[in-house]
Amino acid sequence: MSTEISDQLATASAAVAGVVAAVRDDQLDAATPCTDFRVRDLLNHLIQVVHNFQALARREDVDWTPGPDRLTGDWRTAFAAETSRLVEAWSDPGALDGVSPGLGLPQRVVGQMVLGDLVVHGWDLARGTGQEYRVDPTLVPPVREFLDAMVETGRTMGAFGDPVDCPPGAGEFATLLAVTGRDPAWC
Predict the structure, then answer these.
(1) Would you say residue 187 lies in a domain?
(2) Enclosing domain of residue 72
(3) Residue at 81 is within a domain
(4) Which of 62, 118, 121, 169 is the most buried (most CB within 10 A)?
(5) pTM exceeds 0.70
(6) Percent of the chain as helix, strand, coil, to the nearest 5
(7) Measured between alpha carbons, how far is 177 from 81 in angstroms, rounded to an integer?
(8) pLDDT reported for residue 49
């Protein structure tokens, strides 16, 4: 069984898992467009996001405190496996019902939130490691819908920066990045 969110997460996860798999150890201290995170920090955050949003799909409690370095063992393969479990967790239609007890948001919005995390942080990671990153254009509207509803709250919480100017004709994904406070031309 699948849901619209799980299908979108499957598409985003495949792209991000490919980027994660190609990160070299000598790139872990490189900068990313997400100014709070070096590559290592961003990878640790993504691993935590993927794990916690599995639990949020099941309405379980999550812990957002930074933990130990998660880049141990075969973390690249483990990330791909965890994204598969994320997709599976959001494949249950019941995962989209009601309100998240931990976040106080409609579950559908929670699903869009993790989709946005994958799509935007996938770009951050690709830019920080000099990789190509293509976002499936079908993912931009649901991420933009989430941002339109939640970006101001996210800014208040420090999750997003102030919007940046985006040149006319830059495209929908570049505009989405600019809304999150990222410079789409960052390299």
Answers:
(1) no
(2) 4-179
(3) yes
(4) 118
(5) yes
(6) 60, 0, 40
(7) 27
(8) 97
How far apart (Å, rounded) are the C-alpha atoms in residues 6 and 10?
6
- Torsion angles phi and psi, residue 157, rounded to 5: -85, -5
Instruction: Give me the chain's average pLDDT, please.
Output: 94
Residue 184 lies in a domain: no
Strand partners, 38: 31
Token representation of residue 134: 């293509």
Distances (CA, A) of 132 to 135, 155, 167: 10, 28, 21
CATH number at residue 132: 1.20.120.450
Burial 57-66 (b: 16+ CB within 10 A, else e): bebeeeeeee
pLDDT digits (tens, 9 = 90+) for 6-41: 999 999 999 999 999 999 999 999 999 988 899 999
| Domains contained in the chain, number | 1
Burial of 71-101, coded b for 16+ CB within 10 Å and e otherwise, reads beeebeebbbebbbebbbbbbeeebbeeebe
Q: Which two tokens stand for residue 97?
A: 């019902």
